[in-house]
Design goal:
Length: about 350
């Protein structure tokens, strides 16, 4: 059997383990710094830890690192990583460069169980949740790639890769804690966005716990009858429940929700669709990102024409809601929004 990853221990457990070994309390802090801030993957490299202790830790614990098994670079600079986990499963993460920022798009589950019809990840069953350290390691890897390939720092993190973050709640929160903590990467929470397809009770829980990150909702329709046809989660989490959860989020955090919204021809391009989104935005402090659609081989989904997109933007502007069109990046390597796992058969 594989040994337990030492990074799965809480700070108190770190302290208790080292205390049982007769070590002073500062040793726990030293080991934590090695495995989190320095991303050390080998106990032998912990040079300020006594050799005997290093050997003892190595006998009892492991450090399960991730491995970039397949790296692809897009013509626009985007990098997609096929990330092999310690058990051989594969997820994908993406480095997205723009003039002003470098964003890490990271996965929280191997596969997904929510069956959004326009998303390639839905073609894979959910096999397991990622541990907090596996999520953290994706960020570390992209941080290193930002330095190596762009000579620029990582500026933003979005939980928008494979899986539903709020269905892996404890590990996602722990990863945010380590990414933002002094013993980890020390990044500002305001640079992190958690994206959900809409699980009302978990959105409220996130508001109560308030890790000080941002919240995005993959919405795509503010009409239940339309949203149900493309996102089955709507059957158990209707727009009314999501609205209440987002109002609650704002009351607790003071942060606006970002609606992620793709406009498809013949699906959500009618005046009723525009009016429904405008009404929802008037009820929920929010902003809208209109996302370019990235094909996954399903002919039902075709990007609406520019006149419809303009009609959405103008209608939202009339009620003072900011709406921006986000251009997709990494389409040529299937790294754009909604495309992850489209051609990945490693988990079959």
């Amino acid at each position: 059997m594989s040994k337990k990853d030492i990074r799965s221990l809480s700070p108190k457990q770190f302290h208790d383990v080292l205390s049982e070994l007769g070590q002073p309390s500062f040793r726990a802090r030293q080991v934590e710094e090695w495995v989190w801030r320095r991303s050390c993957k080998n106990f032998s490299e912990m040079t300020n830890i006594p050799l005997a202790l290093r050997k003892t830790l190595e006998e009892s614990f492991d450090i399960h690192g991730i491995q970039v098994d397949d790296l692809q670079r897009s013509s626009d600079g985007t990098i997609k990583n096929g990330v092999k986990l310690h058990d051989g499963r594969v997820v994908e993460s993406v480095l997205i460069p723009t003039d002003k920022r470098i964003t890490a798009c990271i996965s929280s589950q191997v596969g997904c169980s929510l069956d959004c019809h326009f998303c390639a990840t839905a073609n894979l069953p959910r096999m397991r949740n990622l541990n907090a350290e596996e999520i953290y390691d994706q960020v570390v890897t992209i941080k290193q790639q930002a330095d190596k390939y762009f000579n620029r720092p990582l500026t933003n993190i979005v939980y928008m890769g494979m899986g539903e973050p709020l269905l892996n709640y404890a590990n996602v929160l722990k990863s945010i804690e380590k990414i933002t903590g002094d013993e980890g990467l020390g990044m500002a929470p305001k640079r992190i966005t958690v994206s959900t397809v809409g699980i009302a009770k978990m959105m409220k829980r996130l508001a109560d716990d308030n890790p000080r990150c941002n919240l995005a909702l993959s919405l795509h329709s503010a009409r239940n009858e339309v949203r149900k046809t493309i996102m089955p989660i709507t059957n158990s989490n209707p727009i009314e429940d999501l609205r209440d959860a987002m109002v609650y989020w704002y009351s607790k955090t003071g942060k606006k929700v970002t609606f992620e919204y793709v406009i498809w021809e013949g699906i959500n391009d009618a005046k009723e669709d525009i009016d429904a989104l405008v009404k929802l935005c008037q009820q929920v402090p929010s902003k809208v990102n209109i996302i370019e659609y990235n094909p996954i081989g399903d002919e039902r989904f075709r990007m609406a024409n520019q006149d419809v997109i303009n009609a959405y933007i103008n209608a939202l502007a009339n009620v003072n809601v900011v709406a921006k069109v986000r251009q997709s990046r990494g389409q040529d390597i299937d790294a754009a929004c909604g495309q992850l796992a489209n051609k990945n058969t490693a988990n079959a």
